[in-house]
């Protein structure tokens, strides 16, 4: 079974190289290829299958396939002791196929196939361990994503009024505002934006390879990619402003939660949510290419962090609490070095992969000249990005919990190779894309003071962490503990979502009662019982009258006889 995992990893890796070569070629010559197949016609609507290959779809596909190949190689060792290894591999390959359909399809109907495939397969992957926490998390995941699926279906219904579901006909669609709202709903739920953010940290009950593939670079980025494809629907409209404020609040909330959370996988998940909000923020103000660049660089970094976190958790006996983790540098210096590179890149350290996309992103936001409140919130989100990046690095690499120090194990070569390959790409990917592919797209002219702000952002969070440790952690303040509890619980958004799910469950029970009892009583069965009972009563009354008539007749006869 291990050889089967490695064989599929090699096949996916070669496919990633193939797609990356053609993406560069298409970008250089500005080419694209469209494959169209007419399946059938339904009145005025032609049901066609469009497969659209341009530099954007091929580049995104190459990154997804490269990450998938490393995750499959990692899973060859990580899932070695599991009893359903073959089913896990089938689910992962099905997920990759669904993501491929979502990326290359140009028709909303065919996009829906990949969209639903992602949701259903992710439900199975989250519930893989079949325990109570994984089943609750999978149910929350699939129920939240079904809201977005309904939005996608409603968009398809309203797009059918013009006789086509193709993206290329977006300028001629009627009911444009309703379509935009439905597509925004689908994208926000799939990318876990507020108020649908509760399912992403809950999905960390899945195996670590699933988190690295599904919840860092593929499923959660599907909403961003949908917005990139339908970018001209949202450009400088009322909906783009709504998307801006939603993404800003999501980024702020996720950054604060990641700064207080102690579960390692949930910290990385909340950092993913924070970066997804940043991508939506950039797309909402009109720079979809810059958002796409940040999406690619972030996907590689976050997949590597999840895989390295899996090694730390595996070496700590399955504990995910950062206070109980072993010192990763003593377990595997290579993995700890890769994790340090990932944390620095996530914080935007100069000349790392995340620096090139994040620096261009921040300079673009500086050039927009927001008001004081919006600018302050943006600065605060950036500061929290650096805070949770250094927290991950400090607790997993520098600090040792000490409790499980005896559980050190030998790290397999599959772990080291997969993490190192992702680390290698995360170092050079940002520079190569910035200098090679996106070199002519961005030129921002800012003063020297604004240029130095990004460097100061790396220093201020460290001072904030020291101040917090000295002033607050040294004192047992009840208010501080309550504030930490509030921030670590995502502003009680999971509680609200669970209440909504319970309300849906109660409504379904009410519907079941009504469907099984009252509807039957008020419809044909009730009428049957009514007429049947009424007939019996009338029959009895008629029989009673007949007996009374016979009795009185008999009495009258006796009366005449006696006389």
Question: Layout of SSEs?
Answer:
Layout: H1 2-29, E1 33-42, E2 45-53, H2 55-78, H3 85-104, H4 108-126, H5 132-159, H6 176-190, H7 199-202, H8 208-229, H9 231-234, H10 238-260, H11 264-284, H12 288-315, H13 328-331, H14 333-347, H15 353-367, H16 372-398, H17 413-437, H18 448-471, H19 478-488, H20 493-522, H21 524-562
Antiparallel strand pairs: 1-2
Helix pairs in contact: 1-2, 2-3, 2-8, 2-12, 2-17, 3-4, 3-8, 4-5, 4-8, 5-6, 6-8, 8-11, 8-12, 10-11, 10-16, 10-19, 11-12, 11-16, 12-14, 12-15, 12-17, 14-16, 14-17, 15-17, 16-18, 20-21
Mean pLDDT: 76
Biggest sheet statistics = 2 strands, antiparallel
Cα distance spanning the termini = 112 Å
**What count of helical segments does DSSP give?**
21
Strand order of the largest sheet: 1-2
GO biological process, one term: ATP synthesis coupled electron transport
Organism: Macrocheles glaber
EC number: 7.1.1.2
GO molecular function, one term: NADH dehydrogenase (ubiquinone) activity
Question: What would you note in describing this structure?
Answer:
The chain crosses the membrane at residues 7-29, 49-75, 87-104, 150-172, 178-200, 212-236, 242-260, 267-286, 325-348, 368-387, 415-444, 456-473, 485-504, 544-562. Residues 107-381 form the NADH:quinone oxidoreductase/Mrp antiporter transmembrane domain. This protein is 76% helix and 3% strand. With 563 residues, the chain is mainly α. The protein folds into three domains: 1-232, no CATH class; 235-488, no CATH class; 523-562. Strand 1 (33-42) and strand 2 (45-53) form a beta hairpin. The radius of gyration is 30 Å and the shape is elongated.
């Amino acid at each position: 079974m291990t050889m089967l995992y490695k064989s599929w990893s090699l096949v996916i890796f070669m496919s990633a190289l193939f797609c990356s070569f053609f993406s560069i070629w298409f970008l250089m010559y500005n080419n694209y290829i469209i494959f169209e197949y007419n399946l059938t016609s339904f009145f005025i609507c032609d049901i066609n299958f469009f497969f659209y290959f341009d530099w954007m779809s091929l580049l995104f596909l190459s990154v997804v396939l490269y990450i998938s190949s490393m995750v499959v190689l990692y899973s060859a060792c990580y899932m070695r002791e599991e009893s359903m290894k073959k089913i896990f591999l089938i689910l992962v390959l099905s997920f990759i196929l669904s993501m491929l359909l979502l990326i290359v399809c140009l028709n909303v109907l065919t996009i829906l196939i990949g969209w639903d495939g992602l949701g259903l397969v992710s439900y199975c992957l989250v519930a893989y361990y079949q325990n109570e926490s994984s089943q609750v998390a999978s149910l929350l995941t699939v129920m939240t994503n079904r809201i977005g699926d309904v939005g996608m279906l409603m968009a398809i219904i309203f797009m059918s009024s013009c006789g086509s579901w193709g993206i290329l006909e977006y300028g001629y669609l009627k009911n444009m505002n309703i379509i935009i709202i439905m597509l925004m709903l689908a994208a926000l739920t799939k990318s876990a934006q507020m108020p649908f953010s509760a399912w992403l940290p809950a999905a960390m009950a899945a195996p670590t390879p699933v988190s690295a593939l599904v919840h860092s670079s593929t499923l959660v980025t599907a909403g961003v990619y949908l917005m990139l494809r339908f970018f001209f629907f949202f450009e400088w409209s009322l909906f783009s402003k709504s998307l801006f404020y939603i993404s800003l609040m999501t980024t702020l909330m996720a950054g604060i939660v990641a700064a207080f959370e102690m579960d390692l996988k949930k910290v990385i998940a909340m950092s993913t949510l924070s970066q997804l909000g940043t991508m939506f923020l950039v797309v909402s103000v009109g720079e979809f290419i810059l958002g796409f660049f940040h999406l690619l660089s972030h996907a590689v970094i976050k997949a590597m962090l999840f895989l390295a976190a899996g090694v730390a958790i595996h070496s700590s006996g399955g504990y995910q609490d950062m206070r109980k983790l072993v010192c990763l540098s003593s377990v595997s210096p290579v993995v700890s070095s890769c994790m340090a590179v990932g944390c620095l890149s996530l914080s935007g350290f100069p000349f790392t992969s995340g620096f090139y996309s994040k620096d261009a992103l921040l300079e673009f936001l500086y050039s927009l000249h927001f008001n004081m409140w919006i600018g302050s919130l943006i600065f605060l989100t950036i500061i929290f990005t650096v805070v949770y990046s250094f927290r991950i690095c400090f607790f997993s690499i520098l600090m040792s919990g000490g409790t499980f120090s005896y559980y050190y194990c030998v790290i397999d070569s599959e772990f080291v190779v997969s993490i190192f390959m992702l680390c290698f790409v995360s170092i050079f990917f940002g520079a190569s894309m910035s200098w090679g592919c996106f070199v002519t797209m961005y030129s921002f002219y800012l003063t020297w003071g604004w240029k130095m702000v990004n460097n100061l952002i790396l220093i201020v969070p460290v001072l904030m962490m020291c101040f917090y440790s000295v002033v607050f952690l040294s004192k047992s303040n009840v208010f501080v503990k309550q504030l930490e509890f509030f921030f670590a619980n995502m502003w009680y958004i999971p509680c609200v979502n669970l209440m909504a799910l319970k309300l849906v469950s109660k409504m379904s029970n009410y519907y079941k009662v009504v469907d099984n009892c009252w509807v039957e009583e008020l419809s044909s069965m009730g009428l049957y019982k009514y007429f049947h009972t009424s007939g019996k009563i009338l029959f009895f009354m008629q029989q009673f009258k007949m007996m009374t008539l016979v009795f009185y007749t008999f009495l009258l006869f006796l009366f005449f006889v006696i006389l």
